[in-house]
Amino acid sequence: MLRGRKPADSTADRAADGTASRAGSGAARKAVAAAAATAAAAALLTAAGPAGGAGAAEPVGTAELLGAVESVADIGIGGFGIGGRHRVAWAGAEFAPPGKSTVPAAVTYDRALVPVGAQVSVARYDSRRGMTVALDVRGLPEDRDYGAHVHTGPCGARPGDSGPHYRNVPAPRGSSAGPRHANPENEVWLDFTTDEHGEGRALSSHMWRFRAGEARSVVIHEHRTRHDPGRAGDAGRRLACVTVSLDPAPGR
């Protein structure tokens, strides 16, 4: 938490306080408050209107989003204080099909589950000891679960072009993915459920940062990510992809 400063936008605080007051005590109240604050924080990514092209000006002020994300950190997501944070990377775009010679910044491989014209925003924010990645999507089918992860390569014309999930601690070469390496602490999982308006959002906080050149996209999958041995990290088919360089800022 930034010392001596209240969040620039108190929406997340009000949502968390109002919802938590109706919940039980302890872990249940904390979980409800975290969900409310997460939704309020990620919603700020596109609160000012439709997303522009990748690398366009961010839709709301950085301070507003940081203030809302602080409320999430205070509740305990990621388990660490995230004061001293600043925006490292941001991208926003509308999904489009791959062209014959070009690949859009946000590409859909399944137009039924990720329609052309649906919007996506991805942001990465630094902390003293780690980072927070935020995902916001709009225009998808309503009331549906999706998986989403940071991948190592940029999006391509084919779903597999973005490569595997980014892992903070890579699995040994030749080994199969298991829960030890394919888990939401070692990877960046951004699973979400769309609401009645087809909107979804997620935040993922970690006490580590990406290696340079190894985190280049966010891929949306057909179902939530599995945790069980033998299927750990599996979220089904790759439905869409947004290219965004999530590398550390130069000199960091």
Automatic annotation (TrEMBL):
Residues in Superoxide dismutase copper/zinc binding domain copies: 124-242
Highest taxon of the lineage: Bacteria
Broad enzyme group: oxidoreductase
EC number, UniProt record: 1.15.1.1
Organism: Streptomyces pini
Region feature Disordered, mapped onto this chain: 1-21
Record-given protein name: Superoxide dismutase [Cu-Zn]
Keywords for this protein: Copper, Metal-binding, Oxidoreductase, Zinc
Keyword Zinc among UniProt keywords: yes
InterPro entries: SOD-like_Cu/Zn_dom_sf, SOD_Cu/Zn_BS, SOD_Cu_Zn_dom
Zinc recorded as keyword: yes
Catalysis performed (reactions): 2 superoxide + 2 H(+) = H2O2 + O2
Cofactor requirements of the protein: Cu cation; Zn(2+)
Similarity-based family: Belongs to the Cu-Zn superoxide dismutase family.
Cofactor: record remark: Binds 1 copper ion per subunit. Binds 1 zinc ion per subunit.
Function: Destroys radicals which are normally produced within the cells and which are toxic to biological systems. May play a role in favoring mycobacterial survival in phagocytes.
Record-linked Gene3D superfamilies: Superoxide dismutase, copper/zinc binding domain
Regions of compositional bias (Basic and acidic residues) in chain numbering: 1-16
Recorded coiled-coil stretches: none
GO terms for MF: metal ion binding; superoxide dismutase activity
